[in-house]
Amino acid sequence: MLSLKHVAKSNAFLSRLAIVISTSQSLSSSLSLYPHFYYTASFRSNQNTHFLPASTDFLASSFKDWFKLHNNQLLDRIFGILGAQVDDDLPSRRAADLALSQLGLRLSESFVLEVLAYGSDVLSCLKFFDWAGRQPGFHHTRATFYAIFKILSKAKLMSLMLDFLHNYKTQRYFHRVRFHDTLVMGYAVAGKPDIALQVFGRMRFQGLDLTSFAYHVLLNALVEESCFDAVEVILKQIQMRGLEDGITHSITVKNYCKQNRLDEAEAFLRGLMSEGRELDGHGVSRLVDALCKSNEFEKAGKLVEEFRESGMVPMENAYGVWMRDLAQAGKLDGALEFLRSKKSMEGYVPEVFRYNVLLCRLLRENRLEEMCDLLMEMKEGQISPDKVTMNAALCFFCKAGMVDVALKLYNLRFEFGLSLNSMAYNYLINTLCGDGSIDEAYRVLKNSIDQGYFPGRKMFSVLADALCREGKLDKMKELLMVALQRDLMPSTYTFDRFISALCKARRVEDGYLIHGELNRMNQVTSMNTYFNLIHGFNESKRGDIAAGLLIEMQERGHTPTRALFRAVIRCLCDMENPEKQFYKLLEIQLSHHEPNCELYNFFIDGAGHAKRPELAREVFEMMRRSGVEPNRSSHILMLQSYLKSERISDALNFFTDLRQRRKIGGKLYNAMVVGLCKVNRVDIALDLFREMRDYKIVPSIECYEFLIQLLCSSKKYDTAINLINDLETFGRLVTSFIGNVLLFHSLKTQELYETWIRLREVQDESSYGTSMLGLLVGAFSGRVTVSQHIDNLEELIEKCFPLDTYTYNLLLRRLSRRDMDLACELFNRMCKRGYEPNRWTYDILVHGFLKRGKKAEAGRWLEEMLQNGFDPTEGTLHLMSI
């Protein structure tokens, strides 16, 4: 399934590809008359073409047929037999030899070269070379030796190649070819020109000489290894023997270019041309390439055109090199324009590997429309794709948002002999992860491992992150084990992500085991992972392990927060022998860290939240005995410890004791008032509040909020309104919390508004008569008629206090009693203004529609509610069951 961000893009490409493919299949004869077809059909059409799901199968089938063009069933069978030989024991070798013999192959130099060129697996090529050399009636030639040497060299298997040459004399079938020639060529291709020259010297001493083929292999190797003095010597030998030809000229140009003697290379070519000498095109290609690498593109371009106009040089290779260098230098537009020009004017068709350069560059630059055109051009031109082409096409489908097509081609890969490269695997796995097809991505990865490919750290992290996100933790564990077996150390982030996912899945023990392995490997776990592990063991009531992790994370350089200490201490206090566990952790902390207020405060806070005020008080006294003077936070935390356990008298005694010993500030008063409100002791809280006012201490907003909320819940509306008036005397604004409390109670009862009116009559009228807040309370209680227009309601509230999501929910509740259309309009306005709907927002709407019997509309809102992860309240569920 495609992600939304890819839908538009993939539809465009599906349209483009399907039109071209279907047209080409039905009008194949007509296409030959219109070679410009691919450039006249544009992606930029404004028409929106829709396709049936069959489009995916259609595209995959069409590209599969194209990919099959390069297939050779006989060669596939040969490499299938060679690839099936996993073991290198004698029975396995004999079985493979027998299977090859049963194919009835007619061995010749050309056939062996074809097989070696077709294969992509070096070991299989080497096995075939060995088998062919042991067959009666066939003897390896210089060309077949050179081919296998090039394969080994390209694969950078130099040690294997040198062993091959070292054992050369022991192989009976090698003696059918020129012995010394083969040695010279082998060492030359292996990058050992010094040994090749030694062998050549021994040959000359014995009166033997190299063939023209071997001379040129040696000459080329000397140029490659920058042995320029030796190049001149061998070149003279070639000229003296009359072996000079187009290959010699090409290597000579290469020699000049290698030394950056580009003017001499150009003069050499022009001299050959003026003499009417043989030119094979490779020399021109080498000079063009050297000029481009020297950033002389203008000169290179002129040279290409000049030699083309001469008509004396085959230009296909030079064209290909020119396009490649333009593309690699970022001049992709120039390369594409050159291709179009030469194709239309000269009928030039590049070889497949030239197309591949352009395809890969277009892919890299995300120019997918032009890449699509080029793929279709190759397809319709019946240009047989190679593995690079197929891999690039697979990447194209992934990047174009058509991962379904890419996946189908991947599943069919054995039908056309596709072996994915690392880039294609990365694209496919990454796209599948982004598309949410995690199981498919994991399957592709497992298959890739069987093929000997394992993703790099970045790709591993993408898949690991997706597996953790989707909760596929057993697969993630398997992936991790495979990575470690291959000595691939995932990033710390990946480990942390996995451990965190295990903790969230309540598999904290598994996470702890992986954490232990990380420790043994000296990998530092992140602070976030420690948090997750500790919280996981807290939930499992294993405070002892949580405490151990807390200490360990400190030793690793992480600083725990007060909340983390609090959680661990609360868990310890729920275990057996809580005092012992508590003091053990405190003792370790004091032994590892310099005693200070903050450390003691952590334990006072933790004990208070665990409702063990006696432990908190003991830590408080211990702090004083150790010479650490408690600070204001210590006093506040101690007060809160008593209040959380509803030991009001102990809290008051402690507060009184503090007040007698020193002057008390506003923060201690505020802590007492808020704490008393939380345990529903509004009477004592009000006394302390008034005491603050008498001492000219300004209460915090939090004091006002808690007191007004508790007073309204106790229906002491007059006192609550007086507090609002008191708040305004300080020039402070009504907060959203206070405003929402008033609106909530106004919806429940008219008493709040009646109290408001009564107080207006006995107090200064200006305090309440013009109060917008009073008008708002009256409107919500139904006693004051105001416009039902949403804009007016919002404007009225904004004059009193800032709106938040809770305010909108109250507005929705009020409107849903009268007009559900207005309620829906308010919902849309709320979202447009950036407020996030919550569970109550959706529940109010579902409830409102159900109350009016509109079950279909309620069902639609319920579906949206569930999609956003919210469940209906019990009241709404009851209505749904009626």
Automatic annotation (TrEMBL):
Keywords: Repeat. PPR repeats lie at residues 245-279, 280-314, 351-385, 421-455, 526-560, 596-630, 665-699, 804-837, 838-872. The keyword Repeat applies. Pfam families: PPR, PPR_2, PPR_3. InterPro entries: PPR-containing_protein, PPR_rpt, TPR-like_helical_dom_sf. The keyword ATP-binding does not apply. Belongs to the PPR family. P subfamily. PANTHER family: MEMBRANE-ASSOCIATED SALT-INDUCIBLE PROTEIN-LIKE (PTHR47939), OS03G0201400 PROTEIN (PTHR47939:SF13). This is Pentatricopeptide repeat-containing protein. It comes from Carya illinoinensis (Pecan). The lineage of its organism: Eukaryota, Viridiplantae, Streptophyta, Embryophyta, Tracheophyta.
